[in-house]
Amino acid sequence: MNETRSAPMTARMTGPLLVLDHLAKNYGALKVTDDVSLTVGATELHAIIGPNGAGKTTLIHQISGLAQPDSGRILFAGEDITPLTMAERAAEGLARSFQITSILPDFSVLENVALAVQGRSGSSFRFVRNASREEALNAPARVILNQFDLLPRADVPAGLLSYGEKRQLELAIALATRPRLLLLDEPLAGTSHEESARIIATLKGLKGTLGILLIEHDMDAVFQLADRISVLVYGRIIATGSADEVRNNPEVRSAYLGEEAA
Amino acid sequence: MTDAARPVEQSVPAAAPASLRRIMVPIVVFAGLAIAPWIAQFGTESFILSLLTRVMVLGLAALSLDLLIGYAGLVSFGQAAFIGIGAYAVGILASHGINGIALQTAAALAASAIFAAITGAISLRTRGVYFIMITLAFGQMLFFLATSLAAYGGDDGMTLPSRSLFLGYDLLDSDRALYYVAFVTLGLVYLACRMLVASRFGRVLRGARQNPVRMQAIGFSPYRYQLVLYIIAGMIAALAGVLLANTSEFVSPATMSWQRSGDLIFMVVLGGMGSLHGAILGAIVFLLAEEVLAGFTEHWHIIFGPLLILCVLYIRGGITPLIERTRP
Amino acid sequence: MPLSLFLVQMLNGLQFGLILFLIAAGLTLVFGVMDFINLAHGVQYMVGAYLAAMFTALTGNFLFGLLLALPTALAFGLFLEVLIFRKLYERDHLDQVLATFGVIITLNEAVKILWGAAPLSVPVPEILSGSIPLIGGLRYPIYRIAIIVAGLAVGLLLYILVNRTKVGMLVRAGASNAPMVAALGVNIRLLFTFVFGFGAMLAGFAGAMVTPILSVEPGMGDNVLILAFVVIVIGGIGSVRGAFLAALLIGVVDTLGRFMAPMLLSAILDPSTASQTGRAIAPMLIYVLMAVTLCIRPAGLFPAKR
Ligand SMILES: Nc1ncnc2c1ncn2[C@@H]1O[C@H](COP(=O)(O)OP(=O)(O)OP(=O)(O)O)[C@@H](O)[C@H]1O
Ligand SMILES: [Mg+2]
């Protein structure tokens, strides 16, 4: 499961796709990110688990550029992206989903995805042609919608989707930017059984084609999908390793199960 | 995947007749404006023509503001400043003997683009209510600049020596010709704006209005697009200013007073924002109401003000959606 | 330039700044606590001035005029709040801007109908007339000093009220996080009304105070309103301290600018060009100041919201 980690996909890139180098951030007295270092390989699926309030979302915010770390560096494909804005990082191939669904509610489902395709296909300083009739944008968008069984809903305003459908749209938008690294913040939360099965299947299909940093509370899904798992507690990574290593780590057991290892 | 999870699906096909009515409104508005001069000859022609020319010119300015408010969510309270730039470009150049409309328009567009680039670059760094106040302040700055231009009439403004010349000919001296110049300009700009808002560029702006963070996450930084739009809107308003100066043959700081900016916002909201022709409709209703009320009493503001308040409180969404929703 | 002339201009700037502060304080609190942008705040200033002028004429005494004008201005502010503004708190800023713009249009006209379009003037009260000597033989009007003293006193009072009392604590908390304060069971509506009335009264007070030195006329609140916006944008929305410092800054820069720009320019330009350009540049100075502040600190000098 771990042998794909340093696949030599691009010539100049030999190290991991994403490197967090001693990242730290405080909210007042709260150390929300406490000296976090971790890596994600170019085709690795690296999961982060941890109790509520551990700082998982804040970590994703810092990687995607929505929040700035107080100290430390973020390297993406060997380049220091810490000073880049969120949009610039996205243009480099870093996509994310949000824990709290973040879509464009007035646009149709198709347009939500087509706009994400537009973000990676040439300049958007084009003023004349009707963008919603550009097949070059719509065709790839339909392919992705089909993957999530959302194609029949393509013309519905995204704001009218059910919660589970919105979660899938969220993922479809992130994928439509053709990312090299996907940051997923609890993609399964609140989805129905069938929906989460479909999302897990999609993630399995994606595995090995790009790097994924997955935050998820659903342990079954994490143990099925992840190449490596890191455990984040109070802003600190207390363990990293394969599913079995993490499962048997005494510190993890005490953090999760309290009394058992105390 | 129960049916309950898809609550409003069936309402979508019902949108078709509404979209028909959506094209009807601009068609009726423009057709009405096209034949108005023919009707006007049966009344006090010059009065009607000049009123309707003013309607179209301010409609053009309101159109530019609708781009900002209705499509990008940028409530600018300084749009009248750009009308002023256009009007003063005509006035200042004319007072130096440069009467060609091409040159005057070019100067107006260049000056407004520069002013928009500078003030927009600063204003767009802020959000919401800061943006409202800052655009208001920049508009005021230009207003005071105009009042201090003693060489160009200061507070009182200046009368144009003549209307602009077209390739050296005084074509615009005919009210009817000026009317149709304003009409064609408005029509062309309207069509261009229609394209603009549906284009890739417009889609980015509409997206950023709904959810700027999502837009950044897929690689767009809204600031650049908003700045370009701010410049475009400024130039359109300056174009309106060029026409306004020719319509009234007079230029004064009052052209860019902050009340005028407020009027423009009202036109946009009254007509229904985010539809473009709504802004034009708003300008028509606004100026006609002003004209009618002013016929009743010199203190017409005392009626107009409360009407404005009532409109905001009770007609949400403006006139255009009302028309589009009513069954024929 | 003679030092005493400079001193006079500094005092004028201070006096102007303090008047701006009285207006801006209410505006910034109302916005900070209620997220409500009230263009009609300048109207309160005008109403205060007209009321003071009317009551002074009726009673023949400026002090009585002032004392009657204050509660009337307060009552009028609360009347508007209940009649119109209350319906706007839940609306977006665009609706608030438009509706309060409508209030301005209406009241400017109403004032015209009630008192005529011609400016009114109010004599300087007997005890505060005259002037005191400054250095260099120049004198300074006592009444303007009285404005400075009153402005500083209100500033101090506000400081104590906002920083040392329970209501003030709620107002500050409301300015940084209104939903939280509401969640803690505070009657936020009542707090709103209180803050609103208080702000309206301060603006009315400012209007009343300037009646002996400025002409009372329709629309007199409009320009002051925009200056107050500049003040609270520079000071940081919701911050009384920011409003105080920014108001003084704007008052002094504007006054000195108008006075000194032509003078400084005459060093490099011929006198008539210098005075012309000087007069053109001076009114723009405060806007440039605002632009520069925003470039450095987009949320103003003392942002209250996080
Ligand atoms: N902007 C902020 N300001 C102050 N504190 C914050 C901020 N954002 C998050 N926090 C705090 O930081 C801590 C970590 O929050 P975060 O959302 O990153 O946790 P999480 O691991 O994603 O939790 P969950 O599993 O519930 O999603 C929490 O205690 C939260 O209250
Ligand atoms: Mg989280």
Automatic annotation (TrEMBL), chain A:
GO molecular function, one term: ATP hydrolysis activity
CDD domains hit by this protein: ABC_Mj1267_LivG_branched
GO CC annotations on file: plasma membrane
SMART domains named among the record's database cross-references: AAA
Keyword ATP-binding: yes
Alphabetical keyword list: ATP-binding, Nucleotide-binding, Transport
InterPro entries referenced in this protein's UniProt entry, alphabetically: AAA+_ATPase, ABC_AA/LPS_Transport, ABC_transporter-like_ATP-bd, BCA_ABC_TP_C, P-loop_NTPase
Annotated Pfam families: ABC_tran, BCA_ABC_TP_C
Record-given protein name: Amino acid/amide ABC transporter ATP-binding protein 1 (HAAT family)
Organism of derivation: Chelatococcus asaccharovorans
From TrEMBL, chain B:
PANTHER family: ABC TRANSPORTER ATP-BINDING PROTEIN, HIGH-AFFINITY BRANCHED-CHAIN AMINO ACID TRANSPORT SYSTEM PERMEASE
Top-rank taxon: Bacteria
Localization per Swiss-Prot or TrEMBL: Cell membrane
One Gene Ontology molecular-function label: branched-chain amino acid transmembrane transporter activity
Protein name stated in the entry: Amino acid/amide ABC transporter membrane protein 2 (HAAT family)
Bilayer-spanning residue ranges: 23-40, 46-65, 72-95, 101-122, 129-152, 177-197, 227-245, 265-288, 300-319
Keyword Aminoacyl-tRNA synthetase belongs to the record: no
GO cellular component, one term: plasma membrane
Membrane-protein topology: Multi-pass membrane protein
Species whose genome carries this gene: Chelatococcus asaccharovorans
UniProt entry keywords in alphabetical sequence: Cell membrane, Membrane, Transmembrane, Transmembrane helix
From TrEMBL, chain C:
Name used for this protein in its record: Amino acid/amide ABC transporter membrane protein 1 (HAAT family)
GO biological process: amino acid transport
Entry keywords, A to Z: Amino-acid transport, Cell membrane, Membrane, Transmembrane, Transmembrane helix, Transport
Topology with respect to the bilayer: Multi-pass membrane protein
GO cellular component: plasma membrane
Regions that span the bilayer: 12-32, 39-58, 64-85, 97-122, 142-162, 190-214, 220-237, 244-269, 281-302
Subcellular localization(s) per the UniProt record: Cell membrane
Lineage: Bacteria, Pseudomonadati, Pseudomonadota, Alphaproteobacteria, Hyphomicrobiales
UniProt GO MF annotations: transmembrane transporter activity
Family: Belongs to the binding-protein-dependent transport system permease family. LivHM subfamily.
Pfam families documented for this protein: BPD_transp_2
